[in-house]
Amino acid sequence: MAGEAENRLGGRVRVAQGFSMLELLASVTIITLLMSAVFAFMYQAQKRFQGNVVITESNQSARAALELITQEIGQAGFNPQFSPHKTCNQVVQAWADPQWIKLSDITGINPGDWLQVDTGTNNEIVQVWATSAGGGTPANPAASAGPPAYNPPSPATTAPWIEAVFEMNHNGSATPFPVISYKMPYPSGIIAPPALPAAQVPFDHVLEFFGDINNDGVIRYVVYSLAPTTSPATTVSVNGNTYTLYNLRRSITPVTFTAGAVNNPSSPLVQNVLYQDINATYAAPATPLGPTGQPIFSYPNTVVVGVVPNQVTVVGTILVTLSVAINPRSLESGRIEWYTMATQIRPLNLSAAVAVNQAGGAHYMVKLPPGLPMTYPTGY
User: Fold this and answer.
1) Are 338 and 321 in contact (CB under 8 A)?
2) What is the pLDDT of residues 320-352, one digit of tens each?
3) d(CA 234, CA 111)
């Protein structure tokens, strides 16, 4: 009988039957096919997981950038409030040209601000041309600085001096007269892009604004701009159009109110922003600037307000549209993939400045402060 053997006592025992070589080969083949399918699935799942991580990280950086831009634009044009308790103990003679006077304190007084000087019949409102701390250049530097007693202070001085035109006499020798700082919003808090011919698209890849951005009493100048991610620049093709991969960069610098001041170096916020060559001139509507056909920064609500000669350009709304390439290719499909994030921002401070103008306060609208826009450093 097959599978059985006879022992010494004449009984029979069953012997285990083994696998044939053909059975083993068949088993190994089946297991190999199954494992190949499993490993292919695991590899694809791993690529999808890694791709989702890349998308999430890129999405977070773009979202964080939009939140930061929204917060800072919300402060654009804000002119910080300070204590009104400032005095002058000098005798000031009315003079047609700017003259320097010394105050008890000039903290928070910047070139362009308006001051209410003295009380009673000698009360007047003057605009600050320059300060010994914040710089600023008189409109007519060649003109006389006023009476000899009030010539400009030495450049090395740290005393709290201001320069302005005084049309009234003020005598603070016995009782110092009060000086109150008016803090009107800067209606030009968002610097409007340069005008271009109608056949060209807007200068949309740079956003510049200023104000008390950090709400700490310091006027700061902020610039968002694009710079290539690599040198030489990397280009990709999307839907038949060629785009360069850029970094969205940010620079923030305290305003010095002096001509020739330079921005702080910028730092990257978002990588792989899709945009056509920033150095090219595009005729509308031949090619879109980004995959969506929308500019990165656009200004749909720009108006000129004020009364001559105090007219200023007010940007009431900013639209931000960021199209970001993924890594720059999708790890799963190997194709160029991208996503878009957009937001609309309306700065309240600039609306307040327009309200002041509509109420008849155009005379006190503060124009672009001296020294702005600042100079870009090399390689910006």
Assistant:
1) no
2) 999 988 766 666 666 777 888 889 998 888 877
3) 44
- 114-126 confidence digits (pLDDT tens): 899 999 999 999 9
CA 158 – CA 169 distance, rounded (Å): 26
Tokens of 346: 């309306």
CA atoms within 13 A on the CB side of 161: 19
Each residue of 122-157: b (16+ CB within 10 Å) or e?
eebebbbbbbbbbbbebeeeeeebbeeebebeeeee
Distance in angstroms between the alpha carbons of the first and the last residue of the chain: 93
Between 8 and 89, residue with greater pLDDT: 89
The answer to whether the peptide bond before residue 152 is cis (omega within 30 degrees of 0) is no
CB atoms within 10 A of CB 15: 10
**CA torsion angle for 199, 319, 308, 152 (degrees, to 10)?**
-110
Q: What's the number of CA atoms in the CB half-sphere (13 Å) around residue 284? A: 12
Exposure on the CB side of residue 84, measured as CA atoms within 13 A: 11
Cα torsion for 164, 166, 170, 173, to the nearest 10°?
Answer: 30
Structure token digits, residue 246:
């850029």
Give the span between the Cα atoms of 152 and 188, in whole angstroms: 29
Specify the pTM: 0.79
> How far apart are the C-alpha atoms of 294 and 277, rounded to whole Å?
15
Q: Are 273 and 247 in contact (CB under 8 A)?
A: yes
Q: Inform me whether the pLDDT recorded for 56 exceeds 80.
A: no
Any idea where the domains of the chain sit in the sequence?
Answer: 86-182, 186-364
Q: Length of the chain, please?
A: 380
How many CB atoms sit inside 10 A of residue 262's CB?
Answer: 13
Q: Which of 154-163, 208-217, 219-228, 256-265 has the lowest mean pLDDT?
A: 154-163
**Which 8-state DSSP code applies to residue 180?**
E
Question: Tokens at residue 92, please?
Answer: 């000031």
Query: How far, in whole angstroms, is CA 331 from its chain's centroid?
Result: 31
Nearest one of 289, 281, 372, 276 to 77, comparing CA atoms: 372
